Amino acid sequence: MSKRRASGSPEPSQPPRKRLEVDPEARSSTLVSSHTLSYPSTTSAQPTRPVPFQQPTGLLTFSYTPERVLEFSDAALRYYVHPPPGADLRYGYDRWIKRPEERTRLDGLLQAVQRVMQKADASMGPGSGVKWLRDIAVVTWRGIMTKILTAPYEDRDRSEFNAMYVNGTLYIEEHLSDARLSEKEDLAPKQRLQTYYGYSFESWCTSSRPGVPERTDGHPVGWGGDVDTNVQWCSVVKTKLGDSRLVIGGEVDCVRDRFTPGRTDSLVELKTSMAIRRAEDEARFEKKLLKFYMQSFLLGVPEIVVGFRTPAGRLTTTQTFKTIQIPRLVRGKPGAWDPQVCFSWGQQFLSTVKSLLSAGEPSSQSDTSARVWRIVFEPKQGVKFSLLDEAGVREVEGGEDRVGILPRWYYDEVVPKDEGGSTTPAASERHQATSRPSCVPAPAPVSEPSHHGWNI
Fold first, then answer.
1. 369-397 exposure pattern, b = at least 16 Cβ within 10 A, e = fewer
2. pLDDT tens digits, residue range 348-382?
């Protein structure tokens, strides 16, 4: 079951300042050169010019099994049910199967992209899949796009990403050092328990059947099953921010009543938050709403169910929010966030990244020098782009069969072959060509869904 915690440009009111000189601080042995970009103002009284965001269209869904095997099925799909009053979010904590922290690779999403390309080839002729991909500006996970878009308002957490620009498409993965992975794995007991509350809420709110709470021997009525964070149900959508077409993938907690492939109107996001008792609690919750909103908006999830809890993990009440209406709840309040600042910044960021990274992109598989950029988001400061040297690229590849952040099997499919038809040049002996993953089924016909404008 899906268990998870609580993607001519218009210019922002104060355009970010670009400095394209080499940053004198970029002296790490893994960095070749560095560039910076400042965040836009979040306090300007001048309205931000609206940036259109197209309503996301579902491309496909897939599931991860308890063994962490990707399947193109809806086996992990769950249905929303009302949680029992006063549900104990501590329940099942000692049986929690927690997936180990690991590098956040794009591989699962790239398997989905490959499947869409195969379906396009089958229905519209060979080469149609690559042609479709050429029109996509960005491929990344929903969580990464959320961090990028909300960065102007982030005042605490630093984020790092690795990026490549290949055959006209930008690929972005999160960069997690070994130290950061250890930190995420070794949570303090209190923090670990609070993390579990979010997963537990999802279990209380989901069932294997629409509208029918689970009844399992030995467990309270309504308990959806012990938490296993290996299991996920994911949606992959196509959307458009300004003039950039995006393919974004992300986990979806459940659906309401039914699910229709290609549609996102029944998807539901589940979140937890401390019960609101004072004005400062309300202000803190309204700040959290920015990420709640952005995470759901990017995948086209129309509603968010928030479970409010006590410090001891007892559910007090639930409240449903319509995603598209959330910005109105904070508009006009002191320190309020504005989604248009985020979208305008996102468009500016993507334009800058494309201009910076497109220089020197590989033109064929004979060009094996993977150009990987490290993108660092510093709270309240801005973004630094650093080109990694060979040692830095090898660290990113981690000894795996990759070209930079991309698995070799995917790189071989999307980058044009040499004139002689060879796929892997001798200059890259550390890589070995592989076939597509066995979990990617054979292609089936697909029709490309249409988009409808969604202005905010």
1. ebbbbbbbbeeeebbbbbbbeeebbbbbb
2. 999 999 999 987 665 555 555 689 999 999 999 99
Answer whether residue 257 shows pLDDT above 70: yes
d(C-alpha 25, C-alpha 204), whole Å: 50
Higher pLDDT, 373 or 423: 373
- Alpha-helical regions (H) of 80-206: 107-124, 128-134, 142-150, 178-185, 189-204
Query: What pLDDT band is residue 442 in, cutting at 50, 70 and 90?
Result: very low
Is-contact 287 334, C-beta < 8 A? no
Q: Which helix (H) or strand (E) holds 140?
A: strand 138-141
Phi, psi of 410 (to 5 degrees): -80, -45
Residue type, 103: R
Choose among 25, 22, 33: nearest CA to 371.
Answer: 33
| DSSP characters over 257-322 | S---TT--TTEEEEEEEEPP-SHHHHHHHHHHHHHHHHHHHHHT--EEEEEEE-TTSBEEEEEEEE
Single-letter amino acid, residue 303: E
SS3 407: strand
Token pair belonging to 103: 């590098």
Sign of CA dihedral 439, 445, 448, 449: negative
DSSP-derived 3-state class of residue 185 = helix
Q: What span, in angstroms and rounded, lies between the C-alpha atoms of 100 and 103?
A: 10
236 strand-pairing partners = 60, 249
What pTM was computed for the model? Answer: 0.85
Q: Lowest mean pLDDT of 21-30, 190-199, 215-224, name the range.
A: 21-30
Q: What is the DSSP string of 215-254?
A: --TTS-TT-----BTT-EEEEEEEEEETTEEEEEEEE--E
Taking residues 72-76, what's their average pLDDT? 98
Enumerate residues 6+ apart whose C-beta is below 8 A from 307. Answer: 83, 89, 201, 204, 205, 270, 271, 272, 273, 315, 317, 318
3-state SS, residue 59: strand
| 429 pLDDT higher than 50 | no
234: number of Cβ within 10 Å = 22
- Mapping DSSP to helix (H, G, I), strand (E, B) and coil, where does residue 358 land? coil
Is the confidence at residue 425, as pLDDT, over 90?
Answer: no
CB neighbours of residue 227 within 10 Å = 22
Give the SS3 label for residue 374: strand
The token pair at 437 is 């993953």
Task: Look at residues 337, 241, 351 and name the one whose alpha carbon lies nearest to residue 297.
Answer: 241
